[in-house]
Design brief:
The protein contains 4 helices and 4 strands. The chain is mainly α. Strands 1-4 form a two-stranded antiparallel sheet.
Length: 92
């Protein structure tokens, strides 16, 4: 299980045969997912790297909620990197 699946912002497909459904985030811990959503909102406004990432997704035509979910996922990956290597410089 990857880090994002345990928290919840991991997209799961709903496909069957030739039918392809929308990808939805589910599973994980809902309380952590809600806290991560608020952290992504704040990071989107204050962190220039994540703001650039969000704006690039919006410019590509992605819906705002999907772009914010991608920011949530990026936050989890960055936190996981920081836990593995505390001396690393994130975002460089």
């Amino acid at each position: 299980m990857n880090a994002t699946a345990g928290v919840g912002p991991c997209p799961y497909n709903r496909d069957s045969g030739k039918w392809s459904g929308k990808r939805c985030i589910s599973g994980g811990r809902s309380a952590v997912r809600r806290a991560l959503y608020m952290a992504a909102l704040c990071a989107n406004r204050s962190n220039p790297l994540l703001k650039t990432f969000f704006d690039r997704l919006i410019a590509a035509g992605k819906p705002a909620k999907l772009a914010l979910t991608a920011v949530m996922r990026k936050l989890v990956v960055l936190m996981n990197q920081l836990l593995k290597n505390p001396n690393s410089q994130l975002g460089t």
